[in-house]
Amino acid sequence: MIRTGAQIVWEMLQREGVEVVFGMPGGSIMTTYHPRQEYGVRHVLIRHEQAAAHAADGYARASGRVGVAMATSGPGATNLTTGIATAMMDSIPLVCITGQVRSSMIGSDAFQEADITGITLPITKHNYLVTDVHDLAPTIREAFYIASTGRPGPVLIDLPLDVQTAKIEFQPPQGDVCLAGYCPDLTIDPADVEWMAAALAEAERPVILAGHGVVLSGAAHLLRTLAESAELPVTTTLLGKGSFPDHHPLCLGMMGMHGAVAANFAIQEADLLVALGMRFDDRVTGCLERYAPSARKIHVDLDPAEISKNVSADLAVVADVRDVLERLSPLVVRSDRSAWMDRIANWKADAAEREILFRASGLGLTAPDVVREIWEQTGGEALVVTDVGQNQMWSAQYYASSRPRSFLSSGGLGTMGFALPAAIGAQIARPEDEVWAIAGDGGFQMNIQELATVVQEDLPLRIAVLNNGYLGMVRQWQEHFYDGRYEATKLLNPDFVRVAEAYGLRAWRGTSCDEAQDAIDRARNLPSAGLIEFVIEGEGEGGNVYPMVPSGAALHEMMRRPIPVGASKSGWSG
Amino acid sequence: MKRTLVALVQDRPGTLNRIASLFRRRAYNIESLTVGHTERYGVSRMTIVVDESGTSRGIVERNLRKLINVLHVEDVTDASAVMHDLALIKVETVNGTRAEIMKIAESFGARILDIGLDTLIVEATAPGDQIDRLVRILRPFGIAEMVRTGRIAMVRDIVSNPIQNEKERA
Questions:
Q1: Domain pair B2-79 / B82-152, same fold
Q2: Is residue A121 less than 8 Å (CB to CB) from chain B?
Q3: How confident is residue A135, by pLDDT bands cut at 50, 70 and 90?
Q4: ipTM of the complex
Q5: Nearest Cβ partner of B71 from A122, A125, A181?
Q6: Between vectors from CA A567 to CA A381 and to CA A371, what angle results, nearest 5°?
Q7: Looking at the domain A190-347, which fold is it?
Q8: Are strands A167-169 and B70-75 parallel, antiparallel or unpaired?
């Protein structure tokens, strides 16, 4: 059958099982858009290409499938780059298809020409410029294969206009994808697994560090089995949230700069760290030289380039976490570690005494109040998508996750503006789930235009804007480390309720705990999208995220909230 | 610590750019890089000398392997391997020093490629440190121009086809 390049694109997307593409047409890609309807692939029209990449990313995180974004040449393609870099840092499988000027005009500075394969070289797992329509189908197939296998990542395909219009006799590619330079060796040496089991049996103060790799490889249930059968405390990274239930008695909470006190102390005092699918990011380790000084380190990751990059490993296992846990679990034995567990329980109790939620201090509405209320009303079952900054850390701390792929956040790149478009993708991936986008007033305005997409696609998203009138995380640093001078962080904001209403959403404002409770309840009982602006404490005790490991400090050197006089005890740790 | 890596890569547009981009982005320090054809059609061979001080051992090799267009990487630093540079050195002969220079070249096993009125061109193919010594000795005569290829390396005595082997393993 004779097909144009444009038809081949959709034919191949269909064959890859793609159900939705996020994008925006333009001069160099409208030819590809033209035959879409014949192939029945859904298209979601976003309002800015950055949001297309984030939405595809959110779709991929929520579903475990490859997200697809499409944009035109030049500015369309360059607008994708923040989203591509976000996906690259967090190992998210994306395929981005961009239009390009005609092959004959490449290099001539033609209208809307940008060297997008050159630009995205360091922020893609791989990319292609297709110059011959005969290469198109095999390239799309390879792109999906590369994006979704091994350590996942974004792949970009740049399509010149003449390749989109060219006609050929189309033969769908047959057989398996075979790439000579892409065949990682992930076989596990049984001796390594035995060494791990022995180290775990010997350890008096072990800690498991669970990262995004546990989520990506679908190994959460295996992690739980391992932890429970050998009584091993588990702490997660930000992206590892959901790989182990936050309320499990063995869970220490999140580690790192704004991690839980018990997690950070436990890491610093541990004699064995078992890192599963995480990469010892600087936000997780604090000062490297003084990180977990007395611990032996076992590092399991399927990317060999992550081994001993930041923290040198005593044992490195380059393999899929799932395969390793399947082999390890039968070998572990239960040891008596009651002294270690008691120590952990003390840290948790101490943290609970400092918990801001339960103090009678005359504070106004705080972000922890809001996130905790959303958590309570949704029974911890919502799919939460955060933005970046204080809102992200508060969401991580106060929205206890119970399952994988239900807490989505831009971890590595820390991309403000991520929440709303990623939540659009997540809601489309999981239409039955209650999806909450939680953003600050700063980041929300970076992709506020996507409220139009929410309404056009009729998505029942819940959007929480935590409005403290500042770029809050930067303000917090200015308060502590820059003489309290709030340089360029005070925001004069629009009326978010009226903005949302203008876009066609229902919207409410919450300025007290009672109003917040009521607004959340109303938003949840709406069949369509709703936005709530929460006016929260902007400064001081209620406006800061604690604990906080200052830049350059070791993990145990946390700035913490003081124990208040006459505080009521509770089981909540923070 | 300087390491010598031999990489077999797909001979495609952009491959060199990908490798250069990796080194730039990760701030690895390239001492020298040579590229050329191999015995196989569509496969190029790179010899890369990289200064690994400041990075963890083997991290450059592991990152190179991740590139899709890179078929095989081998660290030959500690292997029994032939490692040669090629240098073309144009030396001034204005003061009647031609015979002396030719004698020095001969004792280094270098060839005289061209003799001009006031200069001659010496071609030396040897391990880098030997070429360094030759250059040091020739410098007082006046070096008008010099070009060096950077190191190329080949492991001794093993008949191997790494690309084929990797395919079988996969």
A1: yes
A2: yes
A3: very high
A4: 0.88
A5: A181
A6: 25
A7: Rossmann fold (3.40.50)
A8: unpaired
